[in-house]
Amino acid sequence: MFVDLKLHDIPNTVRAAARSVARHGASLLTVHASGGVAMMRAAVEGASEGAKEGARDPGQACGILGVTILTSLDGAAVGTAWGRPPVDVQAEVLRLAGDVRSAGAAGIVCSGHEAAAVRASHGDALGC
Hints:
There is one protein chain. The chain is an alpha/beta fold and 128 residues long. The chain contains 5 helices and 4 strands; from the N terminus they run βαβαβααβα. The chain has helices at residues 11-23, 37-53, 75-81, 89-103, 112-122, and strands at residues 2-7, 28-32, 63-67, 107-109. The protein is globular, with a radius of gyration of 15 Å.
């Protein structure tokens, strides 16, 4: 089961939500990569705990996917939302992909426009 919640909150809250979702059988769960490495790492840990509590097969752990930049946003919209000048979307996706990888998440969600650049930078490490 793929659960597209795009969680974005303090690490403890995201950890608890990921634990609950995984306990109920989710195989994939999305979080916003802009929440930071600590938040995503908490999601990974919570999902692992929840999978164990739900008596799931250890090989069926809930994978965390970091959502980079929403495809509905262009560089100007991202800059406005983040209180910055317009951003280079591909550069932000690559930066966030690095954070997702550092957090130990299973992969990312990004536009097809950035997928090749992410694969070139991270290989198969992020499920591209």
